[in-house]
Amino acid sequence: MDRILIRGGNRLSGRLPISGAKNAALTLMPCALLTDEPLTLRNLPRLADVDGFGHLLNQLGASTAIEGTRPEDFGRVMTIRAGKLTSTEAPYDIVRKMRASILVLGPVLARAGEATVSLPGGCAIGNRPIDLHLKALEAIGAELEMAAGYVKAVAPGGRLSGGRYRFPVVSVGATENVVMAAVLARGSSVIENAAREPEIVDLCNCLVAMGARIAGIGTDTLEIEGVDRLHGATYAVMADRIEAGSYACAAAITGGSLELVGAHAGDMQATIDALRSAGVTVTDTKDGVLVEADGPLGPVDISTSPYPGFATDMQAQFMAMLCKATGTSVLTETIFENRYMHVPELARMGADVQVHGRTALVKGVDRLVGAPVMATDLRASMSLILAGLAAEGETSVSRVYHLDRGYERLEEKLSAVGADIERASDG
Ligand code: UD1
User: Same domain, yes or no, for 350 and 227?
Assistant: First the structure.
């Protein structure tokens, strides 16, 4: 299995390209299931999760073709054509490996009048139930049946009615699923307390480009008027705000200066505010966002919350960065109940972090020391990479498949801006 080896201590500097957003890609790809015409997505990141999602679409009868980009280019163009769905089932084997597979439920149900999806089960950062996905779909007319670890959703008469649903808590995935289902409903739908993440805006904009009628995009109330059919479109995936935020932390923890080319400051304001509170200089440039850290980092007090709040997907990376701040920072995780799995690994590198329930006290230390470490999820793995960049000596991060799910060519991007980092294969 591969490992990433880092010899820490280098100050990073230069221009670093930001890829298309993983979480946007994973909700834009299933939109292709809503039409028999081709959907062409540009700026798709080259990631294991995107490949995995492509395979799932293939299983449902869609063809996926990657066009015209050279291997050395970042971003891909993929045309997905679901002329006819040959299956309406997302099997356990795929869903258990990739939770985002649940996002085919809404579109397959809307297009075919029925869909069967394996229940995803637990994952490294918590239970992550799908009850809200199901309740929202029920509210717009789906009938549900559970059997043998699967949920089957049926639209009576072959088409969803539309309806009104108010989410009791904000859910990104459930909002995506119900929006993708509602666009083809017979009537209109109102979704209240909807997630407002930029990836949801990207989804809605793509659906509108395909002929959907959605009002309130970017707010917490989405009004969707169902249409009889959608058509094909060409759409460019937004820049990855979490990847950009992660590399911003890399600049900060190494006392470096990185221009994140292609990043959109407007999508990552809470991250930028938190970086500024820690003493990092962040400026908008013509090509993206410039992050400069030339003095010591200061402590911050941050709580994760749904957008536009501070993203839970940035919590682990900030924790690594704050290990090098002067003073004690307070991080509170409000979205997932088990998202501090990186703490014991950071501790092995000399970090001083105490977890009390949902709150972590991060006491800055003078030095981090390289060590063999491994993580249980994607963002936790990135926090170890960041700690490794600032640590003395060599850090070896195993279970690289987590990173390959969400960071396009990580070691290539980081070594191009001065990191001493490489991938090693154990054969
Ligand atoms: C998405 C992102 C993930 C990010 C998360 C929160 C993708 C592929 N993944 O995950 O990277 O960390 O948003 O920003 O886009 N919940 C329920 N019932 C449900 C659904 C969710 O109780 O049916 C709970 C979850 O357990 C969690 C909270 O709601 O506590 C928010 O989860 P949600 O926004 O749904 O996260 P995902 O869509 O799974």
Answer: no
Q: Same domain, yes or no, for 27 and 8? A: no
**pLDDT tens by residue, 60-70:** 999 999 986 67
Residue type, 28: L
In sequence order, what DSSP letters do the residues of 123-159 get, joined into one string?
BTTB----HHHHHHHHHTT-EEEEETTEEEEE-GGGS
336 lines ligand 1 (CB under 6 A): yes
* Residue that terminates a domain, selected from 216, 236, 256: 236
Q: Choose which residue among 26, 104, 171 to substitute to test ligand 1 binding: the one with the highest number of ligand atoms within 8 A of its C-beta.
A: 171
Q: Is the CB of 167 under 6 A from ligand 1?
A: no
- Same domain as 399, residue 275: yes
**Cβ-based burial of 249 (10 A; exposed 0-12, middle 13-18, buried ≥19):** buried
Whether residues 222 and 338 share a domain: the answer is: no
Domain extent for 320: 2-18+239-425
Res 124: pLDDT: 64
Residue nearest to atom 8 of ligand 1 (CA): 23
User: What's phi and psi for 381, nearest 5 deg?
Assistant: -60, -40
- Whether 323 sits among the annotated catalytic residues: the reply is no
Which ligand 1 atom minimizes the distance to the CA of 169? 29
Q: What is the mean pLDDT of each successive set of 10 residues along the chain, which is 427 residues long?
A: 95 97 98 98 94 96 86 84 97 90 97 95 70 97 93 97 98 98 98 98 98 98 98 97 98 98 98 98 98 95 98 98 98 93 96 97 98 93 98 96 93 98 86
Q: CB of 393 closer than 6 A to ligand 1?
A: no
